[in-house]
Specification:
With 259 residues, the chain is an alpha/beta fold. It has one domain: Spore Coat Polysaccharide Biosynthesis Protein SpsA, Chain A (Alpha-Beta Complex), CATH 3.90.550.10. It has ten helices and nine strands. Strands 1, 2, 3, 4, 5, 6, 7, 8 and 9 form a nine-stranded mixed sheet that branches. A hairpin with a 5-residue loop joins strand 6 and strand 7. The longest helix has 26 residues. It starts with 6 loop residues before the first strand and ends with a helix.
């Protein structure tokens, strides 16, 4: 058992007490034996700390202190991580039972792959399945064109590769994951597996609903930073997305109301 790679999972959190217990339990319930779990709380005042303390014996490390947001919290967690494989699960999302073991199995069998990811359900505040994230195979070229199709909740990547591009860029509020994937994909191969590994919770206070308008402008920042031109696929997609964003968010809110 000890020859299996250690997997470090980070949960950044701030005032998510109503969902945090479910997130933590989804990590504790994994059928993989070697998990190092780290929770980085941003100084919550809603009872989150009580939830963390209840489970602190099962945590490798935790902290609750004011920080600079989710990206800062993730950097703190990854700096503490000692696993060979890294992942993060936000404090309103949950894993499926076999997520970690399936990811490790694939990465062990395919050393040329640096990051693996899978399918993800959209779920409501109450945990009801609303639909499925449009996950698909992507690579560096497609990422640079804005074809992301990676549900962050399902990603597992090699620590040695992360260290080559670390840390996460703390200037990003929303697209720190896209920025990381773009940098990782420049060095390695990604693999999408048609298995369901996680659940992405949609709720009115979540970033995906409350601050979706900040995602694509940050992706465009990555594009120009890395030498992208105005006449490009991702810029065209940005302007199209900007026009249809109200309809997109209305559809997501309708999904939540139907739950």
């Amino acid at each position: 058992m000890n020859n299996q790679p250690l997997v470090s999972i980070i949960t950044p959190s701030f005032n998510q007490a109503r969902f945090l217990e479910a997130t933590m339990q989804s990590v504790f319930s994994q059928d993989y034996p070697r998990i190092e779990y780290i929770v980085v709380d941003g100084g919550s005042t809603d009872g989150s700390v009580d939830t963390i303390k209840k489970h602190q014996a099962r945590l490798a490390w935790w902290v609750s202190e004011q920080d600079q947001g989710q990206t800062d919290a993730l950097n703190k967690g990854f700096a503490r991580a000692s696993g060979e494989i890294l992942a993060w699960i936000n404090s309103d999302d949950v894993y499926e039972l076999n997520a970690v073991s399936s990811a490790v199995e694939y990465l062990l069998a395919h050393p040329e792959v640096g990051m693996v990811y899978a399918d993800c359900n959209y779920i409501s505040e109450n945990g009801n399945v609303l639909g499925k994230f449009p996950a698909a195979q992507t690579d560096y070229k497609l990422l640079r064109e804005g074809y992301v199709h990676i549900p962050q909740q399902t990603t597992f990547f090699r620590a040695e590769l992360y260290k080559q591009v670390a840390p996460l860029d703390s200037s990003f509020y929303f697209a720190m994951d896209y920025d990381l994937w773009t940098r990782l994909a420049a060095h390695t191969t990604f693999k999408y597996l048609p298995q369901t590994w996680a659940n992405f919770r949609l709720h009115t206070s979540g970033k995906t609903i409350a601050a979706d308008d900040r995602c694509w402008p940050e992706m465009i920042r990555v594009h120009y930073r890395d030498g992208g031109k105005f006449l490009s696929v991702i810029v065209a997609k940005y302007y199209i997305r900007k026009m249809i964003a109200p309809l997109w968010n209305w559809r997501r809110r309708l999904m939540m109301r139907k739950s």
